[in-house]
Amino acid sequence: VQLVESGGGSVQAGGSLKLSCAASGYAFRRCGMGWYRQAPGKERESVSGITRTGATGYADSVKGRFTISRDNAKNTLYLQMNSLRIEDTAAYYCAAFCDRTYWGQGTQVTVS
Length: 112
Fold this sequence. Notes:
The chain has strands at residues 2-6, 9-11, 17-24, 32-38, 45-50, 56-58, 66-71, 76-81, 90-97, 101-103, 107-111. It is an all-beta fold. The strands form two sheets. Strands 2, 4, 5, 6, 9, 10 and 11 form a seven-stranded mixed sheet that branches. The protein has a four-stranded antiparallel sheet with strand order 1-3-8-7, with no helix packed on it. It starts with a strand and ends with a strand.
């Protein structure tokens, strides 16, 4: 199983970024997926999740600003992030919830 995040970068407050997570090595469509983030000195926290059937959930801190989606044909998970805030600065990780939890290597998002 391999999860590879991309799309991170540096952006000014109020800007947007779209993260992608390319999955391989397992039946993507059979697993729930999620985005997590970890800021320096803080614990990893859940940002958003999406079930196999497309039901979604968000942390209160990102509701109305972030949108999670998945493309099962492309084995890819997305996170559209709008109205970014300085406090969104963190390393963002995607996760696959299958027989066990798999993690990507992370992509850095810096908001200034």
